[in-house]
Specification:
It is built from 24 helices and 25 strands. By secondary structure, it is of the alpha/beta class. Among the domains are: about 70 residues, Alpha-Beta Complex (Oligo-1,6-glucosidase, domain 2); about 90 residues, Golgi alpha-mannosidase II (Immunoglobulin-like). The strands form seven sheets. It has an eight-stranded parallel beta barrel with strand order 1-2-5-11-12-13-14-17, surrounded by four helices. It has a five-stranded antiparallel beta sheet with strand order 18-19-20-25-22, with helices on one face. A hairpin with a 7-residue loop joins β19 and β20. α3 runs antiparallel to α14, α4 runs parallel beside α13 and α13 packs across α14. It is globular. It starts with a helix and ends with a strand. The model has no long low-confidence stretch (mean pLDDT about 95). The structure holds alpha-D-glucopyranose (GLC). The site of alpha-D-glucopyranose has 10 residues, from loops.
């Protein structure tokens, strides 16, 4: 839209640009800035319009955009243009991600570069290297307490190593995902130190208060994220003589986005990492970006405005770069991180599908898909040009964040059902082989989340100890079912390193004083490469898992119906152990894949007539894309063996 006020301001900004910026050839930059300026101006004005320094701040913002554009390499600028032309590129079924810690996977970043062959053997082509920025040793929250946003932690390497890795990945058509911790900094960050030294400019970067008055008001409605290890949301800083907001650990200071200088600093950091070759930036803890007294300080409307602003700005300087929203919040809230009140994604193009993740675990424990089906049915439709990151587990705990109304519709009482799940996964339930551990137990409510490696949570650790071949096979099959779901649901599957070879719980964290209170370390293992070698030994769990997952990935990449164009239809199976949905190729009529999974230990059947005329499968020609086999049929009853899934088509 041509809007007079913002455009005369834009002209003024351009006139005031420093001569060294004005001299450059910024054709693409100016077109994009012109196209996005009205949106940028409106959002910036909504957030900061009342401030006297508004014009100075927006001038500064435009300069940050221009300077980072000038610094962006030719190669990355070309990639931006390619992606502008093919703007749905990330919705393709060809992408498969994995998250890993550089030092636990391969010692360091250089080591990761040497292990790309392993990832390619599996088929992974999108690599999330867990946080690599400088953190104080000991108080790092696994990399999420950053003390220097422009330097790499020496434990994993150097800035040069990141550049080398990103070049290597690009040469192999693989993508790099890097974290930017946008919500908080380490208490050792320079901004925190300057605030401590009494500099009011930097004190305004944080929520810092001399008395308990305001903190107490906040506390009335704010929940605790780490109630066991870091109760409360404020920490007293002796040197500053102030209470500072620390929603996560007491050494992670929340940034004050009410101050435009903070937003501009963070934008500069995002673009810095975009310019180091990150294709996708994972924005950490985005639900927490805006704090308001009297609220839970999560999912506030302004948090969305900030993300929209960051996106609009990133599109000016580095339009090929995508954002992932890490917002592990209620299902109806997660979806808003694609863009509140929008048609196409305008905040983050990708979001963690924490809802699907938690629901899958419910199906594992109950061997029943009632809640899974109900939860997915309630999940609002995504926007266009937005996609899920589907995962089974990640480096964090598993929270049982389903909607209570869905739990009730599925026939459970929410409190006791959550207690059952917690007991099930922490092995307190008789029938369970699961070996998880509670995380973040809240003594007041009795709530907790769950830690544990995927293999140990499904029972493989216990089954191996018991030498129980049948149980071992069931666990392997179940792990494959879960992968079969995230690969076909719609969105980008994000594997978690080690799961492809069934890494078990790693108890070494218990000997480390800095980690012992955080059970999430149990599922952040150092990869055992001897174990990985067993992927070549026929019949071992490692071989079955690795090969099964590799096969799934290769089938996924060749199955157009698995691309994500909101082309999934959930199917009511009338069988509480089955979960089924239809995926349709949006570009070719009649090309459907019926996905069906059995979460139970006994065979289950699905009546194909329940599908109506969806898919119009020819029964005699049904074939499972994954195994290549024809499934067993009795009349129109499809039989799904225990802990198995099918990707069925009749287009042979
Ligand atoms: C995110 C990270 C988590 C971290 C938290 C605080 O949720 O995934 O690991 O503890 O942010 O930074």
């Amino acid at each position: 839209m041509y809007e007079q006020v913002s455009h005369s301001l834009l002209n003024q900004i351009l006139d005031n640009l420093k001569p060294e910026i004005r001299k450059k050839d910024l054709r693409h930059f100016y077109t994009r800035l012109g196209a996005n300026f009205y949106a940028i101006y409106s959002l910036f004005h909504r957030l900061y319009g009342k401030r006297d320094d508004f014009e100075m701040q927006i001038q500064r913002l435009a300069e940050v955009l221009a300077v980072n554009y000038i610094r962006r390499s030719k190669e990355l600028k070309m990639l931006d243009i390619e992606r502008e032309h093919d703007h749905n590129w990330f919705l393709s079924q060809e992408w498969v991600g994995m998250a890993l810690y550089a030092n636990a996977f391969a010692d360091d970043l250089e080591g990761v570069g040497k292990r790309l062959g392993y990832l390619q053997e599996l088929g992974v082509n999108m690599l999330h290297v867990m946080p690599i920025l400088k953190c104080p040793p000991g108080a790092s929250d696994g990399g999420y307490a950053v003390s220097d946003y422009r330097n790499v932690d020496e434990r994993v390497g150097s800035l040069q190593d990141v550049n080398d890795l990103s070049a290597k990945l690009r040469a192999r058509d693989m993508l790099l995902i890097l974290d930017v911790v946008v919500n908080h900094v380490s208490d050792q960050h320079e901004w925190a130190n300057r605030a401590r030294d009494g500099d009011p400019v930097y004190q305004d970067y944080f929520y810092a208060f001399p008395s308990r008055d305001i903190p107490d008001m906040f506390e009335e409605t704010m929940p605790e994220v780490f109630p066991e290890t870091s109760p409360g949301n404020f920490t007293w800083d002796e040197r500053m003589g102030r209470w500072v907001m620390t929603v996560f650990n007491d050494y992670q200071w929340d940034l004050n986005y009410g101050n435009p200088a903070v937003l501009i600093e963070m934008l500069d950091i995002l673009l810095f990492w975009a310019n180091q070759g990150a294709d996708i930036l994972r924005l950490d803890a985005v639900a927490f970006l805006w704090k308001k007294i009297g609220t839970v300080c999560q999912n506030e409307h302004e948090a969305h405005l900030i993300l929209q602003l960051l996106k609009d700005c990133c599109q000016v300087t580095a339009p090929g770069v995508l954002f992932i929203a890490e917002a592990i919040v209620a299902p109806v809230e997660i979806i808003k991180y694609f863009g509140e009140d929008a048609v196409i994604a305008k905040e983050c193009e990708i979001a963690y599908n924490a809802t699907f993740m938690a629901l899958l675990w419910d199906a594992v424990a109950t061997k029943n898909t009632k809640l899974l089906e109900q939860g997915i049915r309630s999940l609002p439709n995504k926007l266009d040009r937005a996609t899920w990151l589907n995962y089974i587990r990640c480096h964090d705990d598993i929270g049982l964040g389903f909607d209570d109304a869905d739990v009730v519709s599925a026939g459970y009482e929410p409190r006791s059902h959550r207690k059952f799940l917690l007991d099930y996964f922490t092995g307190k339930y008789d029938d369970s082989l699961s070996r998880g551990q509670p995380f973040g137990r809240d003594e007041k409510s009795g709530d907790a989340r769950i830690s544990g490696s995927l293999a140990s949570l499904v029972g493989l650790e216990a089954a191996l100890e018991r030498n129980d071949d049948k149980a071992i096979q069931d666990c392997v099959d179940l792990i494959l079912v879960l992968h079969g779901m995230i690969m076909s649901f719609g969105g980008i599957p994000l594997l978690y390193y080690g799961d492809e070879i069934g890494m078990l719980n790693d108890f070494s964290f218990m000997e480390d004083e800095e980690k012992v209170h955080d059970t999430r370390w149990i599922h952040r293992p150092v990869i055992d490469w001897n174990k990985a070698e067993r992927r070549h030994q026929h019949g071992t769990p490692e071989q079955q898992l690795f090969e099964g997952i590799a096969r799934m990935i290769s089938v996924r990449k060749n199955t157009a119906a698995f691309a994500d164009f909101n082309n999934r239809e959930l199917i009511a199976t009338n069988n509480p152990h089955l979960f089924a949905f239809m995926r349709s190729n949006t570009f070719e009529l009649g090309d459907h894949v019926l996905v069906v999974a059995n979460f139970d230990a006994s065979p289950q059947s699905l009546s194909l007539s329940d599908l109506g005329n969806r898919g119009q499968f020819e029964l005699g020609r049904l074939r499972d894309l994954y195994s290549g086999e024809a499934p067993s049929l009795f009349k129109d009853q499809l039989v799904i063996p225990p802990f198995r899934f099918y990707w069925l088509t009749s287009n042979v």
